[in-house]
């Protein structure tokens, strides 16, 4: 009977690293990037949506998901994804750029201009030289 607890411990070990294993999320992220770079946004969206659904996607990956959705011809879905990112505080320069592109696709020019200004402002702050005093 002493072997039963060790069998349970061994069986539980893979679960400790999550359903995809330790390197699974990084591999899915890399594959999604490759799909996006090679004009396969639908495939990238599937992989990134899986990461998001499993709770393993960070703000950058969710922004990539929105980009993949946009490039797949689904700007409404992309905007919904971007809204979720915004609610979680993931407002990076990439977020604002993808948001601007999404709003252009939805023919919401005034909002697209505001998103592009936010992108430019954030990029300017990120690249501004630090005061050495």
TrEMBL record:
It comes from the Bacteria. It comes from Castellaniella hirudinis. InterPro entries: TPR-like_helical_dom_sf (IPR011990). Residues 1-23 are annotated as: Disordered. This is Tetratricopeptide repeat protein.
